[in-house]
Amino acid sequence: MRISTLQMYKQSVQSMQLQQSELHRTEAQLASGKRINKPSDDPTGAAKVLDLTSTIGVIDQFSRNVAGAESSLAFEENVIASVNNSLQRVRELAIQGNNATNSDIDRQAIAQEINQKLDELIGLANSRDGKGEYIFGGFTVDNPPFADVAGSVVYQGDQNQRFVQIGEGTQTAVGDSGDRVFSRVASGDGTIEVVAGSANTGSAIVGEFGHSNSYQRDNYTIAFSQALSTDPITYVITDGVGASVSTGTYADGESIAFTGVHLRMNGTPDDGDTVNINPSRNASVFEAVRGIANALSRPAPDSTASAKLHNEVAQGLANLDQGLDHLGSVRASIGSRLNNIDAVQNINQDLKLQLQTVVSQTQDLDYAEAISRFNLQLTSLQAAQQAFVKTSGLTLFQYL
């Protein structure tokens, strides 16, 4: 078979070009430190790396969400801690003001400070985060969630709760509605509340009260009666439909018990005075604080007014204690969410490390192998070039 000079030249040049291409590919790998620099280097490996890199990007977004969630929850916890401190101060003032040795002027001064604390509490409930959004408004983040309207603090937000995706299939709440935090506080002892009748004229003061497991939920009324001043004071307890539940003779300081409820009263009720025992209702911390301030701001010139003062302050203190317990539960919920965020973040980082390891194993270069291959390719190319020089000179025209 005859091989033409042109054919020999073409084959030699093509061989050298192929070797140069492989050499340049190895040089690019050594420069980048990666085995795969373009999809054609390893189509299957490139697709795998692309998929893994996309997953790592999602995990990075989860990490950014985690940082935002932790910041929001930490800010909310700080606000609630400030609310708790304010309520503790109100409690101290209420106990101080409920002392019978205080004059009307003393109580009014205490009431003034409590009203200042109420303004402070409303301001805390209307706190905004670093983005300028109200944290206790639910989805209503552009308007204050609480407003003082005609002497009553009204919630203007919604009941929604914002969630953030922090992991694959895992979300966490990053806020609480102000209604849940500040307004859904069980009154009384959390199961029942005891309220002295607003029209009472006697000096009886409701003391400690509580319930047992035999408590039957209903609206009860204790009605006191005394036909003559020389007669004993008796009482009749009726349920919500007016049926008699229990009767007895009142004695100052002795406990009254019925259907799983017990309470102690001090002082002397007048004929027709009443005490209502109702199931606990939802009351706001603002209502408790304002009730205490209003009670302390009124003069108490006689035993009737003094009893009314003590009963209202005692009722406000009971509701305040429930509010403090409720805020403790909210803070515990925030702490639980923060712990869960930490756990999910650890899982995310472990998964990211595993994926990065697989990516590295797939695309990173083995320098020892690549350098050996580079030297071999360079030697082969130089040999091919020398051979081409030698063979291209084998022609009779050199000797003519």
Structure, described:
- The model has no long low-confidence stretch (mean pLDDT 87).
- The two termini are 26 Å apart.
- The protein has 7 helices and 14 strands.
- The strands form 5 sheets. Strands 6-13-8-9-10 form a 5-stranded antiparallel beta sheet.
- The chain has 400 residues and is α+β, with helices and mostly antiparallel strands.
- Helices cover 53% and strands 16% of the residues.
Question: How do the helices and strands follow one another from N- to C-terminus?
Answer: HHHEEEEHEEEEEEEEEEHHH
Strand content: 15-25%
Give the strand line-up of the largest sheet: 6-13-8-9-10
Radius of gyration, in Å, reads: 41 Å
Let me know the average pLDDT: 87
Number of helices: 7
What's the shape? rod-shaped
Let me know the largest β-sheet: 5 strands, antiparallel
The helix/strand class is alpha+beta
Total strands: 14
End-to-end gap: 26 Å
Could you estimate the helical fraction of the residues in percent?
Answer: 40-55%
Unreliable spans are none
Layout of helices and strands, plus pairs?
Elements: H1 5-32, H2 43-97, H3 104-125, E1 146-149, E2 152-155, E3 163-167, E4 170-173, H4 178-183, E5 185-186, E6 192-196, E7 205-211, E8 220-225, E9 234-238, E10 244-249, E11 255-258, E12 261-266, E13 274-279, E14 282-283, H5 285-297, H6 303-363, H7 367-392
Antiparallel strand pairs: 1-2, 3-4, 5-14, 6-13, 7-12, 8-9, 8-13, 9-10, 11-12
Helix pairs in contact: 1-7, 2-3, 2-5, 2-6, 3-5, 5-6
Task: Give the tags.
53% helix; rod-shaped; 400 residues; 7 helices; 3-stranded antiparallel sheet; alpha+beta
